[in-house]
Amino acid sequence: MFDIACLLLVLGSLGAQARPQYDNYNTLSYISGADAQATILEEENKPNGGLGNYRYKYTTSNGISQSEEGLFEPGVEPETGIMEVSGSYSYVDPSGLTRTVTYTAGVDGFRAQGDDIPTPVPTQYPLPAVPPRDGAGATAREGGAGVPGFSG
User: Fold this and answer.
1) Residue 1, SS3?
2) What's the pTM value of the predicted model, to 2 decimals?
3) Which candidate, 32, 112, 136, 140, has a CA 20 to 30 Å from the CA of 51?
4) Tens digit of pLDDT per residue, the chain (152 long)?
5) DSSP string, 36-54
6) CA 108-112-114 angle, 5° bins
7) Long-range interactions of 87-95: CB distance < 8 A, separation 24+
8) How far apart are CA 62 and CA 47, in angstroms?
9) What is the distance between the alpha carbons of residues 152 and 148, in angstroms, rounded to a whole number?
10) Strand 54-60 to strand 98-106: parallel, antiparallel, or no bridges (unpaired)?
11) Residue 46: which residues within 8 A CB-CB, separation 6 or more?
12) Kind and range of the H or E element at 14?
């Protein structure tokens, strides 16, 4: 009985050590290497001041940057209005290439552009152009003259 209790105690302590560690913000700490030591090189934050407009940007030492601007146009009613947002972000991918995505969001929805964003496969294709045939190209509607296998 004592052996089983000791075994359970050892197994329980091993399981406790395998759990992920959390920082003060209760998020999983998974960043390592140069990213864990990244610092903010540039930062700007212009809050809206109650008008709905804003602008911010930042750049970090590990190649990450983001900027965004939001413009609010009030509507007739206090609850209505249009918010137009535009921005971009960049990061360095594992192969060392800097990837940049630009985006807008507003009345037309969210639209992003970037070299590494997949493009959707078209669902409609144009019909191929059919070259005209010379005089022997009559169809069945035209009486079938010149159509092989048709006697009309």
Assistant:
1) coil
2) 0.56
3) 112
4) 555 554 445 445 544 444 444 455 544 455 666 677 888 999 999 877 677 889 999 999 989 999 999 998 888 887 788 889 999 999 988 888 999 999 999 988 999 999 888 877 777 777 888 888 776 555 545 555 555 555 55
5) GG--EEEEEEE--TTSS-E
6) 155
7) 89/64, 89/65, 90/63, 90/64, 90/65, 90/66, 91/63, 91/64, 92/62, 92/63, 92/64
8) 26
9) 11
10) unpaired
11) 54, 55, 56
12) helix 2-17
Neighbours of 147 (CB within 10 A): 15
Tallying the residues shown for the chain, one arrives at 152
Query: What is the 3-class SS of 94-139, one letter each residue?
Result: CCCCEEEEEEEEECCEEEEEECCCCCCCCCCCCCCCCCCCCCCCCC
Place of tokens 């105690």: 9
Going from the C-alpha of 77 to that of each of 73, 81, 83, the distances in angstroms are 12, 8, 14
Please name the amino acid found at residue 106: G
Tokens at 135, concatenated: 């005089």
**Which amino acid would we find at residue 103?**
Y
Residue 41: phi and psi, rounded to 5, are: -90, -35
Q: Which two tokens stand for residue 140?
A: 């069945």
